[in-house]
Give the backbone structure.
Amino acid sequence: MKYPDIKTALPGPEASRLIAIDSAHVSPSYTRVYPLVAQKGEGLWIEDVDGNTFLDFTAGVAVCSTGHCHPRVVEAIKEQAEQLLHMSGTDFYYTPQIKLAEKLGAVLPGDSAKKVYFGNSGAEAVEAAFKLARWHTRRELNIAFFGAFHGRTMGALSLTASKSQQKKHYHPFVPGITHIPYAYCYRCPYGGCYPNCGIECVHWIEDTLFRATMSPEEVAAVFVEPIQGEGGYIVPPPEFHRELRRITEKWGILYVADEVQSGMGRTGKMTAMEHFGVEPDIIALAKGIASGLPLGAMVAGSAIMDWEAGSHASTFGGNPLSCQAALATIDLLEGELMANANAQGARFIEGLKELQKLYECIGDVRGKGLMIGVELVKDRTTKERAGEWRNDVIRRAFQKGLLLLGCGENTIRLCPALTVSREEIDVCLSMLAEILKEVAG
Ligand code: PLP
């Protein structure tokens, strides 16, 4: 069994030297929670600039879905790099972008014909969805959810309601967006208890919102993460998306699924929405789509993507290297990785539920496939959030060589590469047990 190997105090001498230069020259707006300076990666393993080896359960924030530097992805990029680096899909045609659009149309759910708009990031995919929804419906209002993260450009940030820090000093935002509570059953915002709640969180839209402040005929789209990501890896109950879809269909409102974090095999299906049996009108994809190369895709039914030439574009969007990396990624997902995400994800959740029996501070374990959240609380009855403990767990894990991230206020986010092995999950579980004992035992 391979374990992390930490040879220096952390950060090591070379990492400390580089971080000092970074502080002088790089934007201070980033949110580094511990001082990892990565040098190279293979599978789930990252070596830093001082030769320390870490086990990565972040996958570069749910991006390196096929593991770091998967040989087939690297090969696809190398081959493309010798052919064509850039030509701009905005003004010209090239094969990788065409092939990827065709492939995405085939692997995404639903039988209807689809078209793809290519950008470079999650925010750009959401931004494109936002504009297309306005274009197609000629309506001005939109609904999004508290806890949602849709990106940091002004349109996507206007839809975001995750942390007020992300919006501080940037007002005013795009008008016409109403945020409503998400289906966070562990802390039901309506005080209900699933399954006896009648899915109040959805019915409230028609019963209150549409009666009091919003005419449904003026709503262009509902933007929703199938499973909330940055908000805390929150899995809604099965009826949530189905009921929401029913309402949007009734009023001619577009259903935009932000699958930037949950999509591309992360939950064991190509899109997380497939777990809920709902076919959205528009899907935003990025992160895991190209195993680490920058790519965003906004996919819509062909009848919906009816904007005209010149209405939206991006110089770098759909770069040939990124498209080839995405084609190789999809091949790997279909070949074995979605199945592995299902199998290992189930084992991982089982192992975490065992830990929950031992550690009172684990209030909730939830997830699908390899998108798993562990919510820490000070008290299981009051559910007082243990945000400081969560941060302490993450910092201690780093010192021991396990890379983790948080999400929400007090949740540990577990999103390893979909190549993760049984042994790597066992190492993570035993390290987590040791750290939880230190922090809250
Ligand atoms: N949408 C979701 C659900 C996300 O999780 C993120 C990033 O975390 C984004 C959009 C924004 O993606 P990017 O950082 O690539 O712009």
In short: The pocket of pyridoxal-5'-phosphate is lined by residues 121-123, 126, 149-151, 225, 229-230, 258, 260-261, 286 (CB under 6 Å).
